[in-house]
Amino acid sequence: MSAANIPNFDEMMNADGTVRPAYSDFCNWYEAQDRLWLKRQDAEAERFFRRVGITFNVYGNSDAEERLIPFDMIPRIITAPEWRKLTKGIEQRVRALNAFLQDLYHRQEIIKSGRVPIHALKDNDAFLSQMIGFTPPGGVYTHIVGIDLVRTGPDDFMVLEDNARTPSGVSYMLENRQTMMAMFPELFTKVPVRPVSDYPRRLARSLRACAPPAYSGDNGERPVVAVLTPGIYNSAYFEHAYLADQMGAELVEGSDLRVIDGRVAMRTTTGYKAIDVLYRRVDDDYLDPLTFNPASALGVAGIMDVYRSGGITIANAPGTGIADDKAIYSYMPEIVEFYTGEKPILQNVPTWRCSEPDSLAYVLDNLEDIVVKEVHGSGGYGMLIGPTASRKEIAAFREKLKANPRNYIAQPTLSLSTVPIFTKAGLAPRHVDLRPFVLVSPDKIDITPGGLTRVALKKGSLVVNSSQGGGTKDSWVLDE
User: Domain named Circularly permuted ATP-grasp type: which ranges (predicted)?
Assistant: First the structure.
């Protein structure tokens, strides 16, 4: 997607060429550095990522190749006042998402009110009938949430999408910071940056706070937390292993688990040990072959029965994927107001629901100028990017839309903000988004200061997904 003709907001530079206050300390430091040394540090960062093994798998290719996550060493910087506003909006949205899920699986008052139509749930695979009438321990559905934000102006942050099922990328946020601190330790003495390194500890604490009724703690022991991974061939396996290690939790696969005496237990060198909280990175359909896909070998037979009887907490709760649905996303302004009684602090990107005849007609007439997405799509796949699509691609997508309009939403081509990246020729602006990570427990919403900044490394591109050639950079929230 080309952004060459779309004016955008540059987060570092004013229109007159002066540096914005957020970047002043960093720029003073940068200008004082030797350029050859900076180039050597840039190369060293890549070698560090290779040594650590910070990679992801790309599906859809014949060899499902493993790639290095591209990293840019110029930080993306957010001021304390900007972050305060963002956290208020993120917290409001996450509270609304959790209330929405609670309502959907119980009284469905928002459906009865007409704010969200019944067809948004009907025949939606992400809505699980097995969760109807059941409340997860502590009333928490979305234990870990990633809210994708884009910026289009000085005070204009908008939500691009919600990730309430199994949001990924937090390990890259942590490794980006660790890499920056290793390469430029003196820089952190000159710029007051809020830390993110305690995220694993906060994650473990938040998960333990959601322990199930079966947890007694009679012996003073903490709730047992484990991370369920599909295995080494999963695209986010590095993150699964990293978080388990950092939390001091066991990394388990389905074959390591079994149901014993009404509990889910993991195999250890001294026998099986009951798990209280399972941070699962396995999709709903593969979680329990007795309840969902009978062919699954990734989950645990009977875990849903244990879950419903109060024997384990599953994070995130099964069925939260309905909140990731891009058609549901289009109703988020109404959802926020319905459950909070407040206007949304963070706005949605304008969205056309192709399930509605008038919207579909508009989208079909303007395919060359807009972006069309699958309602369950992710990773930049299954999209039509009108401004760069060929006539043949647009014609083919037009037929897909006509055949199944409910499977798509459309949005205008946004003018994403730019931040600098390091190139051989010096600093150059590139488009970015931001995924802050949110931890939810029964009595607290904890938002990590910063998040994962994804950057479109190609000049003029708006596609930031790593699977589509994008990279990442460290996100700095300045201290007060």
Answer: 75-456
